[in-house]
Design a protein that fits this description.
With 191 residues, the chain is an all-alpha fold. It has nine helices and no strands. Helices cover 74% and strands 0% of the residues.
Length: 191
């Protein structure tokens, strides 16, 4: 990626993440990125293509941060907590490699595009499925009963999504910490 393309992506992401996708116009992105309109369109043929690029980049950033932490975790139960510790660090502003927390970018995108752009909706769904895959791998390391596996995975997804939403919408900055306590208690009493 060249410097101009990075400038455009960074400016677009910052504007979209803080204000929403439909509320931001191309001219605002051009101004924030300090590029010419022709430069923007040389790199991105449309606003939707730019949105897809920001979603892809943000997904990769989140997964890189998470994988960097998971590679040092003990597989199984401890790894589950790492996912929530990573989320908590982001919410608390301790995850400097990611932008300041402002809710889930993918939930925001799918709420604006679920019925009008299947490519954007698909990217958002794939991001959520990536977390499901991580939880599945971690749960399968210690739970062999398929019914219990599914129950735990579904619960972890709900706790993760709930922590994201409560932190952003309700301002409960300790939501990921609460989720970790629930997980620790659940696993302590798991049969």
């Amino acid at each position: 990626m060249n410097i101009k393309q990075k400038q455009i992506l960074d400016a677009a992401f910052a504007l979209f993440y803080s204000r929403g996708f439909h509320a931001v116009g191309i001219n605002e992105i051009i101004k924030a990125a300090n590029v010419a309109k022709k430069t923007l369109y040389n790199h991105f043929q449309s606003k939707d293509e730019l949105i897809i690029a920001t979603l892809t980049q943000h997904h990769e950033q989140i997964m890189q941060q998470l994988q960097a932490r998971l590679k040092f975790a003990v597989p199984g139960k401890d790894s589950l907590l790492i996912v929530f510790e990573t989320l908590d660090a982001w919410i608390q502003g301790e995850q400097t490699e990611l932008p300041d927390f402002n809710g889930c970018y993918f939930t925001q995108a799918i709420s604006e595009f679920s019925t009008i752009n299947p490519d954007i909706a698909s990217l958002c769904l794939n991001h959520k499925k990536a977390f499901q895959a991580i939880f599945t791998e971690q749960v399968n390391d210690f739970e062999t009963n398929p019914e219990k596996q599914k129950l735990l995975i579904d619960l972890l997804i709900l706790l993760h999504e709930g922590a994201l939403t409560n932190s952003h919408v309700l301002g409960q900055k300790n939501s990921a910490q609460q989720a970790m306590r629930y997980i620790e208690n659940l696993l302590r009493f798991k049969r």
